[in-house]
UniProtKB/TrEMBL annotation:
It comes from Lunasporangiospora selenospora. This is Uncharacterized protein. InterPro entries: LRR_dom_sf.
Length: 114
């Protein structure tokens, strides 16, 4: 399905399975991705890094209520998607304050000096 829409820039998929999410790598122009309640994958930190490389243009990412987003996964996603401006992670019980601070440090280091 997603292979036939390579110019799609906005995808909202509530309750998406990880198998379908693997198709996201074909969406080279994707800028906004909303995947709350992601389900169906067990090794999330390894899943996100290769899968998001194909969508490095993402500027808005909603991963609310997945309960699987760990500090390490968040860091890998932000490394693979360096242009994220809006990130929604509410309802993720696996994130820690340290993980969010690490993400902020990564953003600070990646921004051009003013």
């Amino acid at each position: 399905m997603l292979a036939h829409t390579p110019n799609l820039i906005d995808l909202e998929a509530t309750w998406i399975s990880a198998d379908l999410l693997e198709s996201v790598v074909q969406l080279k122009r994707l800028e906004r991705l909303s995947i709350p309640r992601l389900q169906g994958y067990h090794d999330y930190s390894h899943f996100f890094s290769p899968s998001f490389r194909g969508s490095s243009r993402i500027t808005h990412l909603n991963m609310a209520d997945t309960d699987i987003l760990t500090d390490e996964t968040l860091y890998q996603i932000t490394r693979a998607c360096p242009y994220i401006q809006v990130l929604i992670v509410s309802g993720n019980r696996c994130l820690t304050e340290e993980g969010l601070l690490r993400w902020c440090d990564h953003l600070d280091a990646a921004s051009p000096a003013s």
